[in-house]
Design brief:
292 residues, alpha/beta, 2-enoyl-CoA Hydratase, Chain A, domain 1, 2 domains, 10 helices, binds zinc ion, acetyl-CoA carboxylase activity, zinc-finger, metal-binding, ligase, AcCoA_carboxyl_beta
Amino acid sequence: MMRDAFSQRKDRLKVFQAARERLLRRPAPDRDDLRNINCPLCGGRILMADLRAALYVCPACGQTLPMPAHARLENLLDPGTMKERQEGLKTTNPLAFPGYSDKLDRARRQSGLNDSVVTATGRIDGLAVAIACMDSRFMMGSMGVVCGEKLVSLIEHATKRKLPLVIVATSGGARMQEGILSLMQMARTSQALNHFHAAGLLYIVVLTDPTTGGVMASFASLADITLAEPGALIGFAGPRVIQQTVGGDLPEGFQRAAAQLENGFIDAIVPREDLRRELQFYLTIHRKEGRL
Ligand SMILES: [Zn+2]
């Protein structure tokens, strides 16, 4: 009798203990989730947690807002399959450009990244891919030596392993603080893609807002399939520069995704929530065996 009472009490204690452990294990609410930001288009206040859940598309007006590289990878790749490459590679200040080191420190702190691109391998619906996502929070997604090097290394890896390649681009262009060294990355990425294409492999680029300058003029315009997000600004020189040069008004929607689709520059506009499915479709019909 006494023994029963003891073991009942012991069981109850176990239940309490398990519940307490569950509570302790639950992650504390992310302070960032409780932050509000204003949509740049409609001005509406959006809770960060809601914005994340909506894949960084404004719930009020539908505007596609910039998406952090890791959130993008998490959205596109099968859970638990992402293997990031060269995440520790850090830019120095190769030309001793005044103020550049401070700018890099600030960009690292604000974005939590070491440079403007995250490269990885992983799977989309079970299909192995090499993937790169640029992040506009790091110096407008500009391309310097580290960004170029990470992309070239990823493209070479994909060529060697016969993997399809997906690049989600966003960039203001080459990084001026690295001068000619950053312009060289246009040639390096293009050359690496030449070998990749010669091996008969598939390259899909997703142009997001904005993709301009030296990135647009190199690897972002060399894909087999060119997709864009709704409303993305896509071009070499921006509309302001062109307007100043031609000295006249530009048509509405100039260099936006819809106009670029109409002009045959891109193949399709894909809303963010459909992107994973769309990539999965292209990867399936172009399927080749590859290893990660
Ligand atoms: Zn909005």
